[in-house]
Structure formats: C-alpha cells, structure tokens
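re: the backbone from monday

yeah here it is again, tokenized this time
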C-alpha cells in the first residue's frame, strides 16, 4: 500500500516536532554507593568509580564502628595522629555528595580521645571541614544533619584524618551519591529517521516513473 507525498510530508513534520520535544526530555540516573574497607592491609579500596586511598585497614572487629545495635564488619579503615585517607572519583564523575559514614574513636588505657576531621573539596577550590572531638558520640554520621544540610554536596575529594590524641579513629561504610550525565531519549529520533527514509523512497519511485 502506497502513501501520498502530502501524507509523508505531514508525517515527517510531526516526527520532527516529536524529536525536538524529546530533545528536551532527558533521563538522568542517581547512583548510591557504599565504600567499604575490605582489607586489613594498607590497600586502596576501589568501589564503583571511587577510590579510597591509604585506608590503613584494621582487622580489629570489636573496635570497628557500631551504634544502636548496628555494626560495621571488620576490617575497617584506621587513621592515627597525622595520617590521612583520601576519597576521590574517576571520570565521568566530576562531583559527588558525601551522605554518611561510620566512625569509632579508640582510646585504650591512659590516652587522649582523638579528634577526627572530615574535609571536603569543591570544584572551585574552596573547602569545608567538620571536627569530631571528644564530645561527639561515635557511630553513624549523617552529613545532611550537619548545619542546614547540603554543605557536603558537589564535592571533588574528601579527606579523613586525625589531628590530635594518642588513640586512633576507625571508619568505614562511606556512603556517597552521584548523578550520571543526562542523555536524550532516542525514540523520536528513530521516528524521524523512518519518516525521512519513506520520503526518500517515494522520491526515488517518482524519478523512476
């Protein structure tokens, strides 16, 4: 069954309009990732597109973070005074949000409770830092609850360190979130290609006639 040229031109115009509308419709995907230290040695942890460098893994299960009946399985990360772990992302991820993590400050015997520092870096070079000192209850840290929320979004790097005290800090289960780049939906584009193909076929048939 053949179609008239006017019908096909109308079909192509509708397909073109649909493609333009679909060009504005995009599909983005939000990814939630939990980075876990999985070695008791000083081995970088790679999870999804993230790398946790220098975690100084600890296999001491009883001293890994726990709170309200929940706990983090050993091994977990560890920092002593003056040491640092670093969390970064690989392309295509440019920025990510720090959602939560678990910490446990360990001070066995006669020692000073250490201060744990989390420092985030933004793409424009500015930073944000939070200090968890002796008055802070160990367990799960929800970063949206710090300040008015949103401060720990859009980061390019996060550092974990201890700046004082003679004990150490254990940490693990670092939850992060990132969004992949939006991609145009393809359906209307395929419809448009079909319409142009039909127009071309009709023109060839007319020339042959």
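seq for it, each position gets an aa:
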């Amino acid at each position: 069954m053949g179609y008239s040229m006017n019908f096909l031109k109308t079909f192509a115009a509708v397909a073109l309009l649909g493609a333009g509308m679909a060009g504005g419709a995009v599909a983005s995907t939000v990814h939630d990732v939990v980075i876990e230290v999985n070695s008791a040695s000083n081995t970088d942890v790679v999870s999804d597109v993230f790398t946790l460098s220098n975690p100084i893994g600890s296999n001491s299960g009883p001293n890994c973070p726990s709170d309200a009946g929940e706990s983090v399985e050993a091994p977990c990360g560890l920092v002593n005074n003056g040491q640092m772990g670093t969390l970064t992302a690989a392309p295509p991820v440019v920025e990510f949000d720090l959602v939560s993590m678990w910490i446990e400050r360990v001070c066995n015997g006669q020692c000073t409770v250490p201060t744990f520092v989390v420092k985030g870096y933004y793409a424009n070079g500015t930073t944000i830092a939070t200090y968890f000192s002796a008055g802070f209850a160990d367990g799960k840290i929800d970063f949206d609850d710090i300040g008015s929320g949103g401060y720990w979004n859009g980061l390019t790097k996060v550092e974990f360190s201890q700046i004082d005290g003679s004990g150490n800090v254990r940490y693990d289960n670092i939850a992060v979130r990132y969004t992949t780049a939006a991609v145009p939906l393809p359906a209307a584009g395929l419809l448009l290609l079909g319409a142009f193909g039909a127009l071309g076929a009709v023109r060839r048939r007319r020339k042959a006639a």
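The chain has a mean pLDDT of 77. The chain has one domain: 29-183.
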